[in-house]
Amino acid sequence: MDGIKYAVFTEKSIRLLGNNQYTSNVESGSTRTEIKHWVELFFGVKVIAMNSHRLPGKGRRRGPIMGHTMHYRRMIITLESGYSIPPLIEKRT
Question: Which residues form a coiled coil (predicted)?
């Protein structure tokens, strides 16, 4: 389960919960098949579809030096009806 960082709770992700779709941030190097396998194995659910997009890192300034945070990937996981995932509340860094 190292690939899944934490669940995302935004207005859109809460709206998608009604469609049995769950949103979470994952490691940027993870593939769709790895994430699907981890979700099905760990939570015991059946995944129908997975959508992903890569979000850019944010700019950070420390004095005169401009840096940035790392980019990350967000997955929207659609489950079969009748299955559900308990929310991932703990945020791991």
Answer: none
Q: Where are the alpha helices (DSSP H) in the chain?
A: 11-16, 32-43
Whether this model's pTM surpasses 0.85: no
Q: Is residue 92 part of a domain?
A: no
Q: Say if residues 22 and 77 touch (Cβ distance below 8 Å).
A: yes
Strands (DSSP E) along the chain, which ranges?
4-7, 21-26, 47-55, 59-62, 65-68, 72-79
Q: Is residue 93 one of the residues assigned to a domain? A: no
pLDDT tens-place values along the chain, 93 residues long: 577 888 888 899 889 988 899 998 888 888 888 889 988 998 899 999 999 888 888 899 899 999 988 888 999 999 999 888 876 555 554
**Token representation of residue 72:** 């990350």
Tokens of 32: 């769709």
| Distance separating alpha carbons of residues 75 and 20, to the nearest angstrom | 14
Q: Please give the tally of structural domains in the chain.
A: 1
